[in-house]
Specification:
By secondary structure, the chain is an all-alpha fold. It is built from 7 helices and no strands.
Length: 134
């Protein structure tokens, strides 16, 4: 009886772990699903249409600017604020900053939380500003 309970617990633990793992996506997975169609799986982009991320001074520069761009979009790039949670956003930005020969620091979930909060605060400030300033 005791060994049957132990086996049941192990099976439950393994099933739970597999489910939790399935919900989390690696930065590469997030990139493949959301970014690769434009920026290409190799990070080379399409000249004149979608910028390369491989070797990009922008990508290798200020991580806050990269996170903000993914949150808010830029030019023809859509916003991902609603579709990527903080974990996925930190994973994908870290992946981009550390792939294809790029060697920049990773972005933490806390970094993303802070930038997202600041971005949301800026939206509130813009909405509250009067439109008729004399």
């Amino acid at each position: 009886m005791k060994s049957m309970v132990s086996k049941s617990l192990w099976v439950a633990l393994i099933a739970f772990s597999a489910g939790a793992h399935a919900e989390s996506m690696s930065g590469k997975d997030v990139f493949s699903k959301n970014c690769a169609a434009c920026h290409m799986a190799t990070g080379t982009g399409i000249p004149g249409a979608f910028p390369a991320l491989k070797g990009s001074k922008f990508v290798l520069g200020d991580a806050n600017a990269v996170v903000s761009t993914v949150l808010k979009g830029r030019g023809g790039m859509p916003t991902f604020a609603a579709s990527l949670d903080d974990d996925k956003l930190s994973a994908v930005v870290s992946y981009v900053r550390q792939s294809w020969g790029n060697q920049a620091s990773a972005v933490t979930v806390q970094d993303v939380k802070t930038i997202r909060a600041n971005t949301n605060a800026m939206k509130v400030v813009k909405k509250e500003q009067p439109t008729n300033i004399h």
